[in-house]
Amino acid sequence: MSERITGIAASDGIGIAKAYRLVQPDLTFEKKTVDDTEHEITRVKRALQASSNDVQAIRDSAEKSLGKKEAEIFDAHLAILADPEMVSQITDTIKQKKINAEEALFEVTDNFAKTLQAMEDNPYMQERATDVKDVSKRVLSHLLNKPLPNPALIHEPVIVVAHDLTPSDTAQMNRKYVKGFLVDLGGRTSHSAIMSRTLEIPAVVGSEKATQVVKNDDEVILNGLDGFAVVAPDDQEQQQYAAEAQHFEQERAEWRKLRNQPSVSADGQHFEVAANIGTPNDVTAATSAGAEAVGLFRTEFLYMNSDELPTEDAQFEAYKRVLEAMKGKPVVIRTMDIGGDKHLPYLPLPEEMNPFLGYRAIRISLDRQEIFRTQLRALLRASHYGQLRIMFPMIATLDEFRSAKQIFTEEKQKLIDQGTAVADDIKLGIMVEIPATAAFADQFAKEVDFFSIGTNDLIQYTFAADRGNDRVSYLYQPYNPALLRMINRVISAAHKEGKTAAMCGEMAGDKVAVPLLMAMGLDEYSMSATSILRVRSQMKHLNVADLKKLLPEILENCKTNAEVKQLVEQKVNI
Questions:
Q1: Which of 20, 174, 353, 495 has the fewest CB atoms within 10 Å, counting from its CB?
Q2: How far apart are CA 355 and CA 569, in angstroms?
Q3: What CATH number corresponds to the domain at position 389?
């Protein structure tokens, strides 16, 4: 009998395949004395060989997908598994102490790791302690016959079931075989949700119990359109959702016809539909989807994918590449947004009770100005190669914006004095993600060149609800009248001063929110590249004049998120 698991619809689409549990097994064991030591030695040698086979396969997969240099990390694991000193110590321990293979493995590898960690004057050897622990865990999993999940080794269609998903998890997967993500944690704006949309893979997050219910190889239907999964579906359910999946793919084919068309409403009003990107490599997907701009380039990934602060030249090359690839179309580049849940191992930050409300983003940049000035110089140098707009994140006060602008002006003048080519039309804007900034938008609008409303954080700060906490995910309310009034205020303030208002949060691609934002006059909608053509298609069928008549009723009469959603669905074709 089938079982339904409900969650949050995080990425559109329907996937049907067997479950692949990306869940760490329980590797606890008991210490035992044994008589047949040769049997235990045979067991450990087999486990070592099986582990070597695993690591070699992962290494080969990583080299194909990530490159030779990135795959070299697994060479250290292979070397440890083949280390004659470690192997002989394990076998000798089994013989001398007459203990089971699991306990001997633990004793020897734990001693190896502690010895390496004690080498404080040799950071390289200290790092190898982590490798020894990783290898020991893999060997132990084979001894217990509980293999570790290896996303790199997925070679058939699967629905990935996980407690949570990290960027490293998804980086190892072959997108060809992953038909959906079913995740215990998260909301629509969690990183796993955003990654799934970027990868164009259907996803349901915040299910709470998926890993408790779903077993490996269970047949699963994953409905990322409506936010649920069906485990062990019957024939009728299989046929029903296979037909729905086919219908959705037909819709996608229709949307693709709009790739080179402008984003225009039914009554002829033009809007700019842009893409959010994380790396220069993402520009290909953005241009393929017909993005009219890059509305948000999250530069922190340049910092997170490095072992040290990226140099000015490295940043310059990345920014230049994006600007050139967009061929004169606007590119909004956000300065470093580190902190909160984004950490750099080489830039230690203080432990904080509330990191999302703490030392992060522009607060770090203004405090650690050497980092900020390096990034601004790279941006200024790159401005010569396209239409650059710079956006400062987490601005709470006018003083912060003025300070950032002053540093920008100083670095610009230095480069000009050196004879470096710098564009003279760089626009400076802010990300509106703090309620105080939205409330003071009329004054900010007099000084900034543009606003970009970051609804992922604006919603969590407005409702005091961590966007990654599924227990309060019900407070992710993009249609709540309180939030809509705030957004309308920001857009009106920008237009009063002749400035533009954009949105770069996930709300910009939300099919219920889009008609409301069009009625408010939002100029630019920036989203995951996979949502661009769907939104363009939706805009094509909406009449702005009609939507504007509906807006006062929503802002003045509706009291809840649900009331707004119900009214939009009744009155608007979505």
A1: 353
A2: 37
A3: 3.20.20.60
Same domain, 249 and 356: no
Tell whether 123 and 178 lie within a shared domain: no
Q: Which of 191, 247, 384, 558 is catalytic?
A: 191
Q: From 257, 26, 305, 251, select the one nearest 146 (Cα to Cα).
A: 26
Instruction: Evaluate whether 87 touches 139 at the Cβ level (below 8 Å).
Output: no
In a domain, 29, yes or no: no
Active-site hit among 77, 142, 384, 504 = 504
Residues 6+ apart with CB under 8 A from 216: 18, 19, 20, 21
Total count of domains within the chain: 3
Report pLDDT digits (tens) over 528-559: 888 999 999 999 999 999 999 999 999 999 99
Alpha helices in 32-122, H assignment, sequence order: 37-66, 68-71, 73-81, 84-97, 101-117
Q: Is 191 a catalytic residue?
A: yes
Token reading at 561? 């998120």
**Residue 519 neighbours by CB distance under 10 Å:** 22
Residue that is last in its domain, among 253, 268, 302: 253
For residue 379, is pLDDT > 90? yes
CATH number of the domain to which 217 belongs: 3.50.30.10
Tens of pLDDT, residues 210-243? 999 999 999 999 999 999 999 999 999 999 999 9
Q: Which domain holds residue 175?
A: 3-23+150-253
Phi-psi region of 274 (alpha: psi -120 to 50; beta: other; left: phi over 0): beta
Domain end call among 194, 219, 253: 253
Question: Is residue 63 situated within a structural domain?
Answer: yes
